Amino acid sequence: MFRYFLRRLAYTLPIALGVTLVCFALVHLAPGDPISAVLPENASASVVQEIKAAYGFDKPLPLQYLIWLGHITQGDLGTSIKTGRPVAAEIGPAIANSMLLAAASIFLAFVGGCALGAVAGYTRRHGVDRAVTAVAVTGVSLPHYWLGMVLIVFFSVELRWLPATGMGGPDLAHLILPAVTLAVIPMGIIARSVRASVSEIRRQEFVQTLYAKGLRGPQVLLHVAKNVAPTVMAVMGLQFAQMLGGSILVETVFSWPGTGFLLNTAIFTRDLPILQGTILVLAMLFVFTNLLVDVLQMLVDPRVKRA
Amino acid sequence: MAAALALALPTADARAESVLRVATTLSDVPLTTGQASQGGEGMRFIGFTLYDGLINWDLSRSDVAAKLRPALAESWSVDEATHTKWTFKLRPNVKFHDGSAFTADAIVWNLDKLLKRDAPQFDQAQATQASQYVLNIASYRVIDPMTVEITTKSADAVFPYLIADVGISSPARYKEVGGDWNKFAMTPSGTGPWKLDKLVPRERAELVRNSNYWDPKRVPKADRMVLLMMPDPNTRVAALLSKQVDWIEAPPPDTLPRLKEAGMQIVTNIYPHNWPYQLSYSEGSPFRDIRIRKAANLAIDRKGLVEFLGGTAIPSEGMVDPKHPWFGKPTFKIRYDPDEARKLMKEAGYSPEHPLHVKFAISTSGSGQMQPLPMNEFIQENLKAVGFDVELEVLEWEALRARRRAGSDAPENKGVYGINNSFGYWDPDIGLIGTAWSKMKPPAGYNWGGFSDREADELAAQAKVEFDPAKQDAILARLHARIVDQAMWIWVVHDLNPRALAPNVKGFVQAQSWFQDLTPVYLQ
Description:
The structure holds two protein chains of two kinds.
Chain A: H1 2-29, H2 45-55, H3 61-73, H4 87-122, H5 126-141, H6 144-158, H7 172-202, H8 205-212, H9 217-244, H10 248-253, H11 259-269, H12 272-300, H13 302-306
Helix pairs in contact in A: 1-12, 4-5, 4-7, 4-9, 4-11, 4-12, 5-7, 6-7, 7-9, 9-12, 11-12
Chain B: H1 2-8, H2 10-14, E1 19-24, H3 39-50, E2 55-58, E3 67-70, E4 73-78, E5 85-90, H4 104-115, H5 124-134, E6 137-144, E7 147-152, H6 159-163, H7 171-176, H8 181-186, E8 194-200, E9 204-209, E10 224-229, H9 233-241, E11 247-249, H10 256-261, E12 265-267, E13 273-279, H11 290-298, H12 302-308, E14 313-315, H13 338-347, E15 356-363, H14 372-384, E16 388-395, H15 397-406, E17 418-419, E18 423-424, H16 428-436, H17 454-464, H18 469-485, E19 490-495, E20 499-501, E21 505-506, E22 522-523
Parallel strand pairs in B: 1-10, 1-11, 15-16, 15-17
Antiparallel strand pairs in B: 2-3, 4-5, 5-7, 6-7, 8-9, 9-10, 11-20, 12-20, 13-17, 13-18, 13-19, 14-19, 21-22
Helix pairs in contact in B: 4-5, 11-13, 16-17, 16-18, 17-18
């Protein structure tokens, strides 16, 4: 098991290096001037040059990449052009905020998705299966932005039960609407995956054997659940990792100061250090979340280990 | 459940003191160190709340264009011989928020912060923000503890306007935080009417009243002002309707009926804003022909556009609004006259059947850009009716700004004959001198297209060195009349800067300015 873990960990190193390269290249090859957002309206050529030099944008791109790589290996992600604050200090709280939202959303998505998927996969009635599938497909298809606005109009503007924006202290009241909005798509995806797995596993011979041995429905369900777990974990891992990246739309609609909001701001202001740093940290979080999921899957399902 | 949740909201405890909650269009708190970032809105909410300049804007009236008034300097004068040495007599007994005294040394220290690269307090972020205001400063010195002298590189009658945008930070607080601007940003100290109490990046800035403010008339009426970052316009509207905030900036026009229905106050006023197409005079541009420029100006149904914008704008008749002291007496009346436009186009050899193809660079959004996509499509149809075939090159806001800074001769602007970049006219430089003077092509000024006219050049040069404000206004009025008669740009509308306020927000006077004074605002 330890060797398996080490092998998976070793895979992440070239991935990490590739991520730094792709992330640097994407950010720098995109059109626009990296200092445009901080440049005064009528900056002279000498002022432009001075500012470029101050931020190190006057050097050739490969050199800029190597300097940046050197700094990040020492844990220094640079300084935001726009705010002058260290990038790490900007990303840290944003990730914490997105993580809070992601945790709440994935919890809702997990509970809702598993319940819907299990009901659909377990029931022999076509009507129930179709109804649940319709709900799941609707969930996957609903645009976040639209749903967020609808929830705000209904629960904040009309009923005035919940705040429309911000994250408060943070507190539960501020969390509910963005979490529900963000949970709808993964809930649909989890429901569909669970439904497919449950339905497939229920057809397997060992389930018939369990019934033949006299086990009751709930006991058989427990066995089915154990077999469905790796699939659910894999889907959840991916969804959770994706959520950590924050949702630009949901976080902007709810003014939730997470990584999506941060990225959105950085994109529109060409704040390259923030963009590079955030993309890198998120990509690495994604890689490590997947690694963690792989390890957990192996612990739950010995077949993975043997493979 | 609703009651329990409501308790968790800040609205409940916020009522214990008088708290004004403002939803800005910003996505992050502007720089709080002295020289606010993020343009006019940054200056409005952070620059002029926490800090004063030597000179401030007078934002106390809504019926006239905002002018300058003494602030940290009680008076100022320029040397009659050279017109380059400015002497500022400072206001005594002014204290920074940290309690330290404001003296002439603080002015020199702050200018070093922006201009002297080897000074310990030099701050690139602030220097970048202030560079357009301090570009012409050659030197400065303390004459006595209450007098400072600033020498400019060339005579510049616009200098007082520029220095009004330079905020003065506390040297004592900088020392206290160990010479770290990042720490200073979290506990800033200026001399302004508000003090920063709390800053949460990308979320909020909480300002509290500076009870010891040197101008008793401008001590804030509210105890606290919470500035919330809400870039999404619909979210701002929802926040106001759900009583989560008391004030929102820039509600979308289509939400105004709903806001009015809910009893909200919609406040608007003219301010130095214009939504134009800056035209190219580069080789090959059809707009080198005045008939085509005039035709384009006559082709636009501005009243229809204003209606489409829910009445949140007024038609432009030039760069500045008709009531502005710089409007003058142009002979070319900018109006909707498609027949006259078609006639001019015919004279130039074009018609709706044989249209003139022109490309305009526009943005999807941006500061002062209003509703750029539908507005451009509206105008595209108007122009089509008189013989233009308009191609719109849609860019992201920062990309459009970069195109503007490059000037129309730049390779990236080849084939682009107009740029839809909103503009201001809060000072003579940005409004008229820098746009109309042929030597002010980028990067020297704002003359994107390279407009060149001998009479305009002479008037711009005169205005730049006329130090009597009334005489300067008169020259600027002649300059404005000249550029309108030349149809220098296609001027479309002036935004009315709509804001929506909760019914209990009182005392706000919407100045004719990009900046606003929030000190008289209170909650009933």
